[in-house]
Amino acid sequence: MDGRTVVSTFAGGQGIAWKRDILVPLKAAGYDLFLVPFFYPRPRVTELPDEPTVREHYRKWADVVDGMFYFGAAGTAQQLAASNTAYAKVLREAGKVSMCSYSPMYWGAAQPNRRYYETCGGEGTELQWRTIIQQQPDWVEIVTWNDFNESYVCPVAAPGSPDNGRSPKAAPSYLKSRSSHAGYLELSRYYIEWYKSGKPPPLKDALFYFYRRHPKDAVAKEDRPVKALAGLVQDVLYVTTMMTAPAELQVTSGGTKTVHPVKAGIQHVRIPFSCGAQHFTVCRDGKSILTTEGEPIADRIERYDFFPASGFACGN
Questions:
Q1: Which domain does 133 fall in, by range?
Q2: Nearest to 307 by CA among 163, 195, 178, 132
Q3: pLDDT higher for 109 or 85?
Q4: How many distinct structural domains can be found in the chain?
Q5: What's the whole-model pTM score?
């Protein structure tokens, strides 16, 4: 930024004299940093700060930072959007760089408290991105881009295989059952282009699906319990359609078929799921124009898996 090296952080604000011990010595050594960190607000540590909290938080760091970042993941889509709005507003008024975040979902599979936040598939993605587009922060970061333990969204060559060189026996259970989260990233492309260009891109026929791979009340007797479910957690398929003209969405969930008229534009449909195979088709004028298979939903589980399955089908 202006020839300076951009540096950001996750946490790291408490107990560190950033100006005296880091910024000034580095500048003297020829490294001029442009600091846009995420620090937890103090003294009231919160993952979901409101505007007064952000305002006080910024005042504390105003003479140190060039901007601030909101690292938001542990919240519902509505809560994350509200905190993004607060950061963008306060930093814009201060004339500083604001970096907001988009988080597709959060499931703390490896964390002691094992929290899950319902973001409602494409509904939460649209809500967060529309808020970002409305606020027009300087930058946006997708949180987290490659954290397989929590809310990863990047494509994975083999979602179900362990990583980091571990053997299958050594890999933790949460690494053995990952699903692709490609639906979140593909749907985000539309809103990213809108954010960058300032206008909605032309639509192409597409459908996107999101769902958990087991019922919320399924019991895994040998696994650690899930401590908290935040938001309205339902046994539903979240389907988002982008249509150039009206069409018909056909969904077969565990052998149960339902049909849903969908209008031109972007529309969200919630469909109660049944265990078994999942199939999605869009028809127009009696012809199939999009079709895709999702992962099956299990009725019995050995471990809790709140990582959503997601995918998409796009036309030309």
A1: 5-314
A2: 178
A3: 85
A4: 1
A5: 0.91
